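Notes, p. 3: input format for complexes.
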Amino acid sequence: MNEYETVIGLEVHAELSTKTKIFCSCPTSFGAEPNTHTCPICMAMPGTLPVLNEKVVEYAVKAGLATNCEISRNSKNDRKNYFYPDLPKSYQISQFDKPLCEHGYVEIDTEDGKKQIRLLRIHIEEDAGKLNHDEFGGGSLVDLNRAGVPLIEIVSEPDLRSSQEVEQYLRKLKSILEYIEVSDCKMQEGSLRTDVNVSVRKRGETKLGTRTEMKNMNSFRSIVRAIEYEANRQIDVLEDGGKIEQETLRWDEVSGKTFSMRDKEDAQDYRYFPDPDLVAIKLSDEYIENVKKELPELPETRKKRYLEEYHLTEKDANIISSSKYLADLFEKASEICNNPKVVNNWIISDISRILNETEMEPIEIPFDYKQLAKLVILIDKGTISSSIAKKVLVEMFENPRDPEEIIKEKGWIQISDEGAIKEVVLKILSENPQSISDYKAGKDRALGFLVGQAMKQTKGQANPQMLNKMFIEEMNK
Ligand code: ADP
Ligand code: ZN
Ligand code: MG
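Output follows (477 residues plus zinc ion):
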């Protein structure tokens, strides 16, 4: 098996977060009642004319600059002709031979160090509508809310060599698009979806093998599984003396297999030609310079700053800077509570764990930086112990409100009353005479055990510093 190498190239579609569609002024927001975000233009009524939304060009140029592309001074829109029920014009306005951005790259971390994944192009195009199947007596209904929502398509060279590299590349790309705020990249809502092209070849071979393509994938897990399955399938076919057919496949999540889609879409001729209803897109150097000036700090730069300014570890800086949302949460909360080290720990450990367990994206965290800062301050002041704080955090995820309010409501305030602490200490000491002799014999671990017992007894509410101090005092009496 190891004499083969897997080769992957991706076409990534990202929905742009402009307020209005690419050629009309309908809203782009997700989740509205079917066909309420429509007008004669995006419904393709005869006689209507498209007008290009300037913001779409700006966002695409931003994405190009953030991924080291050359920006075309001279670009245009082309018609890509095909028939499908969710495409009312029977053509999609896209870009053919003069895309807005070309020849960029995205850098990823691999086991052998940094690697540049080259981008062939980034072009703008309109999204199609959506077919809703089987809802009414087995028929299909068309929802055109998504028709005309602006997309950028980011096409990579076939530079990726494993499913891990693909995941790294996609995460990096997603992170960049989030930082520059051109797409919300919500994969479950289809804002970021990927066509995955896979081929295999013998190691050392320079010619590319025949590829197959899996369209519209929107989960990291499925993409990784699908690539691994498909590469192995292709190797088996070749080893058996067979030939790979260039075709579009469907990945089935349940069986974990790819299936042929029958209709050989790859044989399609789109008969591209320049859209006569739209003028050419001409960009001046000044325009491009201005967009460049507006680019925010990108993930790599932030990461560097976190290493230098906050002395985070490489691993922590990677995790936090990979998401603009986490990075903002970290910086803004740290500023309020003046304790970046503890904020970092909360984000890296408990918050990341909950995000993982609930498959939530950082942008969906239901509380804000002020509430996180408050949690840290409450621990610093000794109002709650860190074990209680963990419970407060869970509450903040489940039913977000002010941490102080949660503590009051639940009666979770830390016991810092000397009399109450002393009572617990004396009780635990009377129950554990062996620990006292161990401590006196120089076994420091005995102290930790006693504090642990007292914490258990008070359900984590006793102030651990006070417990520590008082145990030592009592045992030294
Ligand atoms: P299409 O739009 O018809 O799918 P493109 O030529 O634009 O065709 O290629 C699309 C993607 O396929 C690109 O990301 C490219 O890197 C990738 N690709 C092309 N050839 C191969 C191959 N042999 N193996 C893997 N990926 C490939
Ligand atoms: Zn419209
Ligand atoms: Mg393709």
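The chain has a mean pLDDT of 92.
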